[in-house]
Specification:
The complex is a heterodimer of chains A (about 210) and B (about 300). By secondary structure, chain A is an all-alpha fold. Chain A has one domain. Chain A is about 75% helix and about 0% strand. Chain A has 7 helices and no strands. In chain A, α1 packs antiparallel against α4, α2 packs parallel to α6 and α3 packs parallel to α7. The model of chain A has no long low-confidence stretch (mean pLDDT about 80). The radius of gyration of chain B is 19 Å and the shape is globular. Chain B has one domain. The model of chain B has no long low-confidence stretch (mean pLDDT about 90). Classes of the chains: A mainly alpha (about 210), B mainly alpha (about 300).
């Protein structure tokens, strides 16, 4: 079951690298959050801790439902459908994604993590999710896609923190959740303002604002 | 090693291969709400073409005549190495995997040469596309099969397909077989010029790939080409459906029967895909093939870990 969920997560990550439709990107990043929470439910050994269920429930609620809704709203306001001109083309992005996946799995297998009971495959895919997020941020030119990359990165960090330091992850995760909630909120407002100023949400024109 | 019992699926393949395109067309017609052509239409077409004589252009050489014959011979020979329905192939030696793949390559090479031999620029355009896309499908096929080779520690196509059940656990088998099945299905669509890659019913030269290469062939040569392409569809369908076949064990005859049902299912799956998708733009086709490459690579990652 865990393997099937992990396979779906990998496919979703690769799809996010190769898709130009912003609407389905937003849906997928929500799905990614829900999948990661379900993987955490399956993989974490001590489920009797109450704060585990609080984190999982909150992250499904906020990252799986609330933030995608918010971004859908921002998308509708800005009248954008597609990411037209990425800095790195889609086939190249997918092949690079494959390379990232290999690298992350390799790293997670050579790390000396004897004290952790979770299979290294899970850790590798969590790291891969972070990589996908970072890559989306640096290689796409629309503000919405960058927000999606930011969310995907947070999903990966959440999964990694659950795997590596389960006992402390509660406080960290609450802080991070608050951060991304505020972050996406601010970005939504920013997208709205960029859109009103330039009539589109490409960010490369923002560099004209400097002195 | 010869395995005479597999002559039975081999003969069945020779007999039933043209039926697959009939099933595909029936499925498409069903989705479009039409009656569609007779399911045995391909047999009738082949019979009609057999009775006709061939016309050869004045400036063509022996290559033009050799193209269809070598293509049919290569595909026919490849059928002897193909494990069908969870059984060992008629001929199986270590390393016949590469022989199998490059037999298909040889057939394609001669089709391309024959297309060039006519001197028609349309046919050369189709030939160049065929060469380009098949160069992208070949690594996918080799990568997928080498994953099977990793499981069985062998390089014989029969042994590869006999050891699919070596995948460690059931969950792993489900998730990894979905990857390889998807990759092989896309390869099958691309190699047999089915719809997301090429439309076999179109007659607009600018967009065709496979059909444009055989524009100048006629009569019995065209029958050879059509029959070879039916056999090739059977080959790839069998490679795809064979992945899930070893997960179950039945007696020989039940296996054969299930195999034929499986081939019919594959054909109707192609029909469903063709009813729901339009042909991709030519620049989009590499995306599709890269997707199948990624699926193949994921399959490798999944079984090694």
């Amino acid at each position: 079951m865990l393997l099937v969920l992990l396979a779906t997560l990998v496919l979703i990550n690769l799809y996010m690298l190769g898709s130009s439709r912003l609407g389905s990107l937003i849906r997928n990043v929500g799905l990614q959050a829900i999948l990661i929470s379900s993987i955490a439910i399956l993989a974490i050994p001590d489920k009797h801790l109450w704060h585990f269920w609080v984190i999982t429930g909150l992250s499904i609620l906020i990252k799986g439902i609330l933030l995608p809704k918010l971004m859908k709203y921002a998308l509708r306001e800005s009248n954008t459908r597609r990411e037209v001109e990425p800095y790195v083309s889609y086939p190249v992005s997918i092949l690079l994604g494959l390379f990232f996946l290999g690298a992350c799995l390799w790293i997670s297998y050579i790390l000396p993590l004897e004290s952790i009971s979770i299979p290294p495959l899970t850790l590798g895919i969590a790291l891969f999710t972070i990589c996908v997020g970072i890559f989306l941020i640096v290689s796409r030119s629309k503000a919405i896609t960058q927000t999606i990359g930011y969310l995907s990165m947070e999903n990966g960090i959440y999964a990694t923190s659950l795997i590596l330091s389960f006992s402390q992850s509660f406080i960290v995760e609450m802080g991070v959740l608050l951060d991304i909630f505020v972050g996406v909120f601010v970005m939504g407002i920013l997208v709205f303002h960029i859109n009103r100023e330039f009539e589109h949400i490409d960010i490369h024109l923002l560099s004209n604002l400097k002195d | 090693m010869l395995n005479f019992l597999s002559l039975i699926p081999l003969i069945l393949a020779l007999f039933f291969a043209p039926l697959l395109s009939g099933i595909i067309n029936k499925t498409k017609a069903w989705f479009a709400g039409k009656t569609g052509p007779n399911i045995f239409q391909k047999y009738k077409d082949l019979y009609k073409l057999m009775l006709k004589g061939s016309v050869y252009g004045e400036n063509t050489s022996w290559l033009f005549k050799a193209g269809p014959i070598v293509n049919l011979a290569a595909v026919f020979l490849a059928l002897f190495f193909l494990p069908q329905g969870g059984n060992v192939a008629f001929i199986s030696v270590n390393g016949d995997l590469f022989f199998f793949i490059y037999l298909l390559g040889l057939g394609r090479f001669f089709t391309i040469l024959a297309a060039f031999d006519t001197g028609s620029s349309f046919e050369q355009m189709g030939a160049s596309r065929e060469a380009f896309y098949s160069a992208m499908t070949e690594p996918v096929l080799l990568l997928g099969l080498s994953g099977l080779g990793f499981l069985s520690q062998s390089m014989s196509l029969s042994t590869l397909y006999m050891h699919v059940e070596n995948i460690p656990s059931l969950a792993n088998a489900i998730s990894s077989l979905v990857f390889i099945f998807g990759a092989f299905f896309i390869v099958m669509l691309a190699e047999n010029s089915r719809i997301p890659v090429d439309d076999p019913t179109t007659h607009l030269e600018l967009t065709m790939i496979h059909e444009v290469m055989i524009l100048d062939h006629s009569g019995i040569d065209l029958a050879f080409i059509e029959y070879a392409s039916s056999l090739k569809l059977w080959l790839f369908g069998s490679l795809t459906i064979g992945l899930i076949f070893r997960l179950f064990f039945f007696s020989f005859w039940v296996q054969i029967l299930l195999f034929l049902v499986g081939m019919a299912l594959i054909a109707s799956m192609i029909g469903i895909v063709e009813s729901f998708f339009a042909r991709f733009k030519l620049v989009k086709i590499p995306y599709l093939l890269i997707t199948s490459f990624v699926l193949s690579a994921l399959w490798i990652i999944w079984i090694i870990l």
